[in-house]
C-alpha cells in the first residue's frame, strides 16, 4: 500500500469518525452499536473479457458498521482484491505475458438493518473510493487509476456467541473508469462486478 | 341520365390517362444519368483528405495547391455540409477530352484561348476541353500538356512526412567504378542515331522504327525486351520495356524511363528531338548497358515511352495496363531533357510531389556525389507534364529529372533541337548520377559482402489486458550463409530515416519487436553482417500498422452477446 492510498483511506476513516462525533450529541454513546468484521470472498467482473483474463478475484476486507437505535447506520472499511492472469491474444501468434491486477476500495455506505434476535439483515448504498493498478511482467506496461464510484451492499449477520458474529455479504460495484480498452474493441472499461464475502466479527 | 353519368366518368378518366401517358415519357432514363462535374478543391483545408477519402470522392489529378475531383450533386452537397470549399470547373461530359496545359506566357494563354475552352486552375495551369485527343495537336508545340486521366481514385488519409530524409549512404569503390563506365561517346552516338530517324513524332513510321531500334539495343544487351502497343487516334504506337530481374526480391521494382518520341512545328517530317528526348532515351540505354552486367537485389525496369508529346499517352497506358499488384514499384526516375545547359555550372532539376520527397532527396544526394552535378530539389505536384505524372496518379514515388523546369531549352520542340546544341559534360554527369541512383535504389550486389537476407517477412500479434495492450512485430528471414549476425532497422516513415533497433548483432534469423510507442505505422528492413563487420544491402522494406484499430473479431462478438445477456 503506497502512501497516497493510506492517506486516502485515513481520510475516509477520519470522515467516518467525524460523522460519529457529530452524531454524538444527538444520541448517546450507548445508542450506537459498532460491529467489526474480517472477511474473505470472491469478486466477479461483470465484463466477460475481464473474467476470461482474471477469473474470480480473491477479496479480503475489514468492515466497520455503526448503527443507531433507529437502525440507520454507516459502514466503512477497506477491501483488497488481487488477481493474476495472462494477457489475451487478440490476433497473431500467442505469447505469454503474465499480468497482475490489484484494487483497494474504501467504501462509505448508508445502511439500514432489521434485527430479530441473533439475526440481522442490513442493506446499504453509497460511495467508495477505488484505487486499481494493472502490471505486466516481461514488458514495461502498467496502469494506475482511481475512481469514486457507487457501491451497494447487502449483508446478513448471525450471532454465534454473545459478541461473536458470522457475516455473509453481497456487494455490487460500478466503476466506470472512462478508459478505453482494446480488449473491448476500443470500448470503455467499467470494472463493475459482484462480490461475495463471508467473515467473522465482533460487536464492540 | 345514365348517358350523362357515363360522359362525366370519361371526363374524369381523361386527365388520369393523360397523366399516365406523361409519366411513361418522364420515366425514360435521362440522357446524362450521373450529372458528374469537375471541381477544384483547394488543399490545406482542415481534415480535407480524411473527408474526401471517407466520402470516396474521385480525384482525377493532384496539383500543387489543389485537387481536381469528379463528383455528383449529392457528393457536392455532402462536401459542403462538411464545410469544405471547392470551385466548380465544368459539368463533366464523357464525350469530351480534358487536358491540362501550362501557359507560362500571356501570349501562350491567348493562343490557347483562341482555340479551346480553357478554365483556370492554379498558377499557370489551365484545363482545356477538346472533342478528341488529336485536337490538342492544334496547341502551339511549346506548350506543355497532359491528358486528364479518365478515371481516378479516392484519396488516402495523408501521413505526415518529414521535410528531410536520412538513409544509409553507401560509400565504396563500386559506385565510382560503375559511374566511370558511362561514356560520353556512347551517349553522343545514341543521340545521333535517334536524331537520324528524322522525326520521332509518335504517329509516324519513323517513330516505330526508332522503337524497333531501342528494342534491338536491349536485345543486344542480352535482355528480353517487349512492346506495349496502343493506338493514338488510328496510329500504332509502342512503348519499349526491358528489365534486369532482381536476384533477391524480384517483385521490388525500380523504374527508369524516358520518352523517345519527339515533336516540332514540322513534326511529320523533321523533329530531331536531341535534348527532348533523345538525351533521356540514350541515358536509359547507357544505364541498361552498364547495369545489366551487375547482379541486383531488386528489379530494374527500363521503359521508353511513346506518344508523350500527345499528352503522356504512352505512360498513361502503361499504368493502366501494366501495373501488377504482385509488384511493388519502389520509385520511378523519369529523364526528360537532361543534356542542355544554358549556363554553367548547370544543375539538374529533380521534381517530385510530396510523397516522392524521399526519392528526390536520395537522387539529389547521389547525382551530387556521383554526377557530379548539383541536384535541385523541387516539390511541385502541378508539374504533371511528363511521364512521371501517371505514376504520381497511382501514388507511386516518381521524380522527373530535367535540366531546367522553368527556363526551357530555346530549341525546345523546334527543328533545331539537335545534338550539336548539347553540353556533353553536363549530360554525362546527369547520366552518371542517374545510373548510380538506379544502382543504389535497386541495390547492386557488392562482391565479397554478405548476401542480402532473403524472404524477409513479418506478422503482427496483439496481446491485451484490461488497461494495456502490446503489439508485437514478429520478423523473420532466411539465414544468410557466413553471416555473423543481423541488424534490424525500423523507421516511422517509408524508405528513409531507418534506425538500428538491436544494440548487438542479432544471432537468430528472427526477432520480436514490441511496440510500446504511439506511432501508427512502422517500416522494417534487415541486413546481414559478416565477421569482418561488412554489412549487406537492406532487405525489402516491410510496413506494419500498429495503430489502435479496434478489433472486431468473432470472439469479441461472442463476448459481446454474452455481455448483453448478463446485462
Ligand atoms: Zn519531353
Strand order of the largest sheet of chain B: 10-11-13-12-14-17-15-16
**Secondary structure tally, helices of chain A:** 2
Overall geometric form of chain A: elongated
Largest sheet report of chain A: 8 strands, antiparallel, barrel
General description of the model:
- The complex is a heterodimer of chains A (204) and B (567).
- Chain A has 204 residues and is mostly beta strands.
- Chain A has one domain: Porin.
- Chain A contains two helices and eleven strands; from the N terminus they run αβαββββββββββ.
- The longest helix of chain A is centred in the first third of the chain and has 21 residues, at 3-23.
- Chain A is elongated, with a radius of gyration of 19 Å.
- The two termini of chain A are 27 Å apart.
- Residues 24-28 of chain A have low confidence and may be disordered.
- Chain B has 567 residues and is of the alpha+beta class.
- Chain B folds into three domains: 37-153, no CATH class; 173-214 and 228-442, Aminopeptidase; 457-554, Immunoglobulin-like (Sandwich), CATH 2.60.40.
- Chain B has helices at 2-26, 48-54, 73-81, 106-115, 173-180, 184-195, 205-220, 274-291, 313-321, 357-370, 389-393, 424-441, 554-566; strands spanning 37-42, 58-62, 66-71, 87-91, 97-102, 117-122, 125-130, 144-147, 153-154, 226-232, 235-244, 249-259, 298-305, 328-335, 348-352, 375-379, 398-402, 457-464, 469-476, 485-491, 499-500, 510-515, 521-529, 542-545.
- In chain B, the strands form five sheets. An eight-stranded mixed beta sheet of chain B has the order 10-11-13-12-14-17-15-16, with helices on both faces. Chain B has a five-stranded antiparallel beta sheet with strand order 4-1-3-2-9. In chain B, strands 6-7-5-8 form a four-stranded antiparallel beta sheet, with helices on one face.
- In chain B, helix 5 packs across helix 12.
- Chain B is globular and about 70 Å long.
- Chains A and B meet through helix 2, strand 4 and strand 7 of A and strand 18, strand 19 and helix 13 of B.
- Strand 4 of chain A pairs antiparallel with strand 18 of chain B.
- Bound molecules: zinc ion.
- Residues 259, 276-277, 308, 336-337 of chain B line the site of zinc ion.
Amino acid at each position: 500500500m503506497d502512501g497516497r492510498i493510506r492517506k486516502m483511506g485515513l481520510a475516509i476513516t477520519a470522515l467516518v469518525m467525524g460523522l460519529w462525533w457529530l452524531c454524538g450529541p444527538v444520541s448517546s454513546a450507548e445508542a450506537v452499536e459498532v460491529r467489526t468484521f474480517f472477511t474473505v470472498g470472491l469478486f466477479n467482473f461483470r465484463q466477460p473479457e475481464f473474467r476470461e483474463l482474471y477469473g474470480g478475484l480473491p477479496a479480503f476486507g475489514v468492515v466497520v458498521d455503526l448503527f443507531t437505535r433507529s437502525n440507520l447506520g454507516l459502514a466503512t472499511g477497506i477491501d483488497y482484491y488481487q488477481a493474476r492472469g495472462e494477457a489475451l491474444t487478440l490476433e497473431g501468434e500467442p505469447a505469454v505475458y503474465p499480468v497482475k491486477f490489484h484494487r483497494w476500495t474504501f467504501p462509505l455506505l448508508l445502511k439500514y438493518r432489521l434485527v430479530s434476535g441473533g439475526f440481522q439483515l442490513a442493506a446499504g448504498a453509497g460511495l467508495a473510493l477505488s484505487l486499481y493498478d494493472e502490471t505486466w511482467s516481461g514488458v514495461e506496461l502498467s496502469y494506475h487509476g482511481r475512481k469514486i464510484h457507487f457501491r451497494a451492499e447487502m449483508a446478513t449477520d448471525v450471532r454465534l456467541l454473545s459478541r461473536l458474529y458470522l457475516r455473509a455479504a453481497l456487494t455490487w460495484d460500478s466503476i466506470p473508469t472512462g478508459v478505453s480498452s482494446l480488449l473491448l474493441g476500443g470500448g470503455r472499461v467499467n470494472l463493475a462486478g459482484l462480490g461475495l464475502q463471508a467473515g467473522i466479527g465482533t460487536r464492540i | 341520365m345514365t348517358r350523362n353519368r357515363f360522359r362525366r366518368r370519361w371526363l374524369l378518366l381523361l386527365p388520369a390517362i393523360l397523366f399516365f401517358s406523361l409519366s411513361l415519357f418522364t420515366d425514360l432514363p435521362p440522357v446524362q444519368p450521373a450529372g458528374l462535374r469537375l471541381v477544384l478543391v483547394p488543399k490545406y483545408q482542415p481534415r480535407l483528405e480524411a473527408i474526401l477519402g471517407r466520402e470516396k470522392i474521385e480525384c482525377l489529378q493532384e496539383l500543387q495547391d489543389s485537387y481536381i475531383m469528379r463528383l455528383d450533386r449529392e457528393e457536392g452537397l455532402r462536401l459542403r455540409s462538411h464545410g469544405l470549399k471547392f470551385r466548380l470547373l465544368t459539368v463533366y461530359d464523357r464525350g469530351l477530352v480534358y487536358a491540362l496545359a501550362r501557359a507560362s506566357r500571356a501570349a501562350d494563354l491567348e493562343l490557347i484561348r483562341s482555340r479551346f475552352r480553357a478554365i483556370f486552375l492554379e498558377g499557370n495551369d489551365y484545363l482545356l476541353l477538346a472533342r478528341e485527343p488529336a485536337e490538342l495537336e492544334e496547341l502551339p508545340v511549346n506548350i506543355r500538356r497532359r491528358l486528364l486521366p479518365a478515371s481516378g481514385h479516392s484519396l488516402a488519409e495523408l501521413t505526415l512526412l518529414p521535410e528531410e530524409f536520412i538513409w544509409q549512404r553507401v560509400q565504396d569503390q563500386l559506385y565510382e567504378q560503375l559511374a566511370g563506365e558511362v561514356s560520353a561517346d556512347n551517349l553522343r552516338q545514341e543521340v545521333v542515331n535517334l536524331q537520324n530517324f528524322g522525326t520521332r513524332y509518335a504517329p509516324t513510321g519513323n517513330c516505330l522504327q526508332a522503337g524497333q531500334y531501342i528494342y534491338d539495343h536491349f536485345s543486344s544487351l542480352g535482355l528480353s525486351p517487349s512492346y506495349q502497343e496502343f493506338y493514338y487516334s488510328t496510329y500504332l504506337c509502342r512503348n519499349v520495356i526491358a528489365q534486369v530481374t532482381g536476384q533477391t526480391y524480384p517483385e521490388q521494382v525500380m523504374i527508369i524511363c524516358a520518352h523517345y518520341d519527339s515533336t516540332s512545328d514540322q513534326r511529320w517530317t523533321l523533329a530531331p528531338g536531341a535534348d527532348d528526348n533523345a538525351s533521356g532515351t540514350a541515358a536509359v540505354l547507357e544505364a541498361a548497358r552498364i547495369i545489366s552486367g551487375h547482379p541486383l537485389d531488386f528489379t530494374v525496369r527500363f521503359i521508353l515511352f511513346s506518344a508523350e508529346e500527345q499528352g503522356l499517352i504512352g505512360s498513361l497506358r502503361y499504368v493502366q495496363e501494366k501495373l501488377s499488384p504482385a509488384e511493388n514499384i519502389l520509385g520511378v526516375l523519369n529523364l526528360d531533357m537532361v543534356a542542355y545547359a544554358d549556363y554553367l555550372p548547370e544543375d539538374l532539376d529533380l521534381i517530385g510531389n510530396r510523397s516522392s520527397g524521399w526519392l528526390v532527396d536520395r537522387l539529389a544526394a547521389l547525382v551530387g556525389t556521383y554526377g557530379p552535378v548539383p541536384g535541385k530539389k523541387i516539390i511541385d505536384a502541378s508539374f504533371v507534364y511528363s511521364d512521371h505524372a501517371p505514376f504520381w496518379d497511382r501514388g507511386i514515388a516518381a521524380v522527373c529529372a530535367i535540366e531546367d523546369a522553368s527556363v526551357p531549352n530555346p530549341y525546345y520542340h523546334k527543328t533545331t533541337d539537335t545534338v550539336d546544341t548539347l553540353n556533353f559534360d553536363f549530360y554525362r554527369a546527369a547520366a552518371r548520377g542517374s545510373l548510380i541512383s538506379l544502382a543504389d535504389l535497386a541495390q547492386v550486389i557488392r562482391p565479397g559482402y554478405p548476401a542480402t537476407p532473403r524472404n524477409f517477412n513479418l506478422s503482427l500479434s496483439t496481446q491485451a489486458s484490461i488497461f494495456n495492450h502490446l503489439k508485437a512485430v514478429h520478423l523473420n528471414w532466411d539465414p544468410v550463409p557466413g553471416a555473423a549476425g543481423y541488424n534490424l532497422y525500423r523507421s516511422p516513415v517509408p524508405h528513409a530515416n531507418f534506425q538500428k533497433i538491436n544494440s548487438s548483432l542479432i544471432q537468430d534469423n528472427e526477432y520480436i519487436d514490441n511496440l510500446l510507442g504511439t506511432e501508427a505505422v512502422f517500416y522494417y528492413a534487415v541486413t546481414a553482417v559478416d565477421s569482418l563487420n561488412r554489412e549487406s544491402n537492406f532487405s525489402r522494406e516491410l510496413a506494419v500498422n500498429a495503430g489502435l484499430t479496434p478489433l472486431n473479431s468473432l470472439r469479441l462478438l461472442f463476448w459481446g452477446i454474452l455481455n448483453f445477456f448478463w446485462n
